[in-house]
Q: What sequence folds into this?
């Protein structure tokens, strides 16, 4: 089945921008034209593609078709580069899944090395980011998965090092007699979200099993650091983010010399790998500069 590129671009714009009006403005057409294109595409596939609302969202089939449109753009851009053709003024768009701590520490530098792309980032836990690849919703992912997803190439990047940290005042208040199982079980902990297992992994490795501290949920890498500095709780912070605070004693490790290293990889759809080679090269180069290499 072949799809009209104007229909696909309309769908992609609606899902990216959240409304028919914004999509129309982006494509320099009327909202009625966008509506007609979406209807024609839905008639062609025999299924609803857009869930109308504020914002508009895609059905599972709509998301896949919008992703297909982005893939076509990337492949056409690669062909233009290979044939030394003018690829036009419109930059191509790439959807990637990345964990928040990589985004906060090193990934932006990799993005900056590929200035001719528009990035559409999905932020998810490193243990779950590869699932976006499995569902076909992204072209690549920074992941902690140990094996490549089916149909994907995997490149080892190094390990993102975490340190269990808290403020000196927090340590004096809650761990005056040391980081014991009893004390840890009573002490407020920072957790990114329900998928975040880093604190529990560190506890089991360094203190003991079956310890469940009370927890603040705080889905922000920078807020994690600020919350630790503000005596709100302790948490696993990327060493890249807190090394200055540790050096200046604004934060201290709960137990010295107990880092938690999380190996990361770059997984990229094998079909899209040639088109994404400049991105892959940039990600590998920047990651290996900043992450722990064994």
A:
């Amino acid at each position: 089945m072949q799809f009209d590129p104007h229909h696909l671009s309309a769908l992609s714009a609606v899902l990216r921008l959240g409304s028919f009006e914004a999509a129309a403005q982006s494509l320099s057409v009327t909202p009625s034209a966008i509506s007609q294109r979406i209807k024609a595409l839905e008639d062609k596939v025999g299924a609803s593609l857009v869930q109308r609302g504020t914002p508009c969202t895609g059905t599972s089939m709509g998301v896949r078709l919008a992703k297909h449109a982005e893939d076509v753009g990337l492949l056409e851009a690669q062909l233009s580069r290979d044939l030394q053709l003018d690829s036009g003024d419109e930059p191509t768009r790439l959807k990637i899944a990345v964990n928040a701590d990589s985004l906060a520490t090193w990934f932006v530098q990799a993005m900056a090395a590929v200035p001719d792309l528009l990035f559409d980032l999905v932020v998810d836990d490193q243990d779950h980011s590869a699932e976006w690849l499995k569902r076909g919703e992204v072209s690549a992912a920074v992941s902690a998965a140990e094996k490549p997803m089916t149909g994907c190439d995997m490149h080892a990047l190094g390990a993102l090092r975490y340190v269990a940290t808290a403020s000196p005042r927090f340590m004096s208040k809650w761990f005056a007699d040391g980081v014991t199982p009893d004390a840890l079980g009573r002490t407020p902990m920072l957790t990114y979200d329900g998928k975040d297992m880093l604190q529990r992994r560190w506890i089991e490795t360094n203190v003991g099993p079956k310890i469940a501290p009370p927890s603040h949920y705080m889905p922000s890498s920078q807020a994690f650091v600020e919350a630790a500095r503000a005596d709100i709780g302790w948490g696993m912070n990327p060493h890249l983010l807190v090394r200055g605070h540790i050096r200046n004693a604004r934060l201290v490790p709960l137990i010295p010399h107990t880092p938690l290293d999380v190996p990361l990889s770059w997984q990229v759809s094998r079909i899209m790998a040639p088109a994404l080679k400049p991105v892959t090269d940039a990600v590998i180069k920047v990651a290996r500069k900043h992450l722990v290499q064994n």
About this structure: The chain has a mean pLDDT of 91.
